[in-house]
Design a protein that fits this description.
2 domains, eight-stranded mixed β-sheet, seven-stranded mixed β-sheet, globular
Length: 326
Amino acid sequence: MVSTYNVAFWNVENLFDEEFSVHRTEKLKRALGRDLAGWTPQLRDAKIAQLASAISAMNQGAGPDLLGVCEVENAVVMTLLTQALRDRLPTRNYDFVHADTSDQRGIDVAFIFDADLFTAPLDQRFHHVVMRRTATRDILQVNFTTHRGRTWAVFANHWPSRSGGQYESAGYRAIAGETLAYFHERVREVHGKDTPVLVMGDFNDEPFDDSLVRHALSTRQAARVERGQNAYLLNLTWDLLGQQEGSFYFNNAPNMLDQFLVNAAMLEGDSPVRIQPGSVEMIRLPGMVRTGAYPTPIPFGGMGRPVNVNGYSDHSPIACTVTELD
């Protein structure tokens, strides 16, 4: 018997708690300044409702089995989003894992998962901070246990942005790539080379950029991943890139910043936890992107930008299919 898992990732764009949240530190209040002015509980909840409506429509209306998200402020908004998903999908037993960071803008990464399919042991949750002079970004690693008892290491990433210039900031993303490669190697050392590894995230770089190719050891060649001695990762989003797709648009040009990568243990034909070839897709549900020549995602806004209560995020989510054997 085979279990089929729908896995998704989404940069949900500035999912912040309300303007006067008691859960926000004084340091973060100073850093954000007036950016959250007018961000009422009603607007926060409206954005969560929009996100939940899209997430619950994924996987043909069943919702994803495992979802990585980034640009969430804290456990408060994660609790609200997870509850909104439970309300829409009552057969789902959704839970979440979140690691709070000291990011200058207060944005983190997290997982939402169906606890009937996966568990996230407390001693198998790891938070890897990527330092930058003006801020931090992070990588959240959870070694999930599947409902069949296997360890599956999953990494959710949000790498340093291109603010200040793509090339001027490239070194920070190189550090993030090295950090990911190091902890991928640690999984192999601690749990064995046959441990399946899935990497997802908003890398703020394209699949061909150095941070992913040279530093994270990702490639478009499956043979190199399967036969190489190093801890290579296969970047699954090259096919979308070849179709001129983009999860994020800048000046109407598509950028494939949101990506999935897998290790050799998820590629081989007899692998018990395996990525389904060709299953990576961009999710563009009706109303989520603009019509016309440039299918740009429709943002919700906020953080000093005009609010569109019919919007969602400035990124499109991506999804893939993973199978597990008995």
